[in-house]
Amino acid sequence: MNNIWKIAAVPAVAFSLMATPALAAEPYDGWDSNSDSQLDMNEYRTGLDKAGVFDKWDADKNGTLSETEFNENIGDNTTAFNERFGENAYADWDADDNNELSEDEFYENSYAAYDADSDKVIEEPELGDLGDDMGDGGFWDV
To answer: Which residues, at least 6 apart from 61, have a Cβ–Cβ distance to it below 8 Å?
Structure first.
């Protein structure tokens, strides 16, 4: 009986160790409020709001991002950020050309960058990019 338990336990333990990464919570876990395995704009914005991304980036708490605040928060991730969002993200995202990014400009443009196929939802593999950026050391790691 002892040997049978060992034979059954070893594969079970090995399987649980292999399955752990797949079962681990994603950095954006819980954002998909309608459980359709994709994020629409409202789910994305709500998730970033709950994570405190815009609030963290808005150092002076005036409700907009200056170019200085924007660049300071990109920090050492400039190359990777530019690859994901473009080298002129701040200017491109400032739709009203007032030299400030509103929350709407920030969310709409960052969302559009993840929605690579422009189908108005972020799904696999786009979710993987978002997960990378939400994780430790990512752009939105707060």
So the answer is: 55
With vertex at residue 87, the alpha carbon angle to CA 85 and CA 92, rounded to the nearest 5 degrees, is 70
CA count, 13 A, side-chain hemisphere, 117: 8
Distance CA 29, CA 47 (A): 9
Q: Residue 14: pLDDT band by 50, 70, 90 thresholds?
A: very low
Q: How far is the first Cα of the chain from the last one, in angstroms, to the nearest whole number?
A: 51
Q: Which DSSP symbol is given to 125? A: T
Q: In sequence order, what E strands does 23-141 have?
A: 64-65, 101-102
Tokens of 131: 């997960």
Q: Are strands 64-65 and 101-102 parallel, antiparallel or unpaired?
A: antiparallel
Sign of the CA dihedral running 45, 47, 48, 50: positive
pLDDT at residue 104 above 80? yes
Reduced to 3 states (helix: H, G, I; strand: E, B; else coil), residue 39 is strand
pTM exceeds cut of 0.85: no
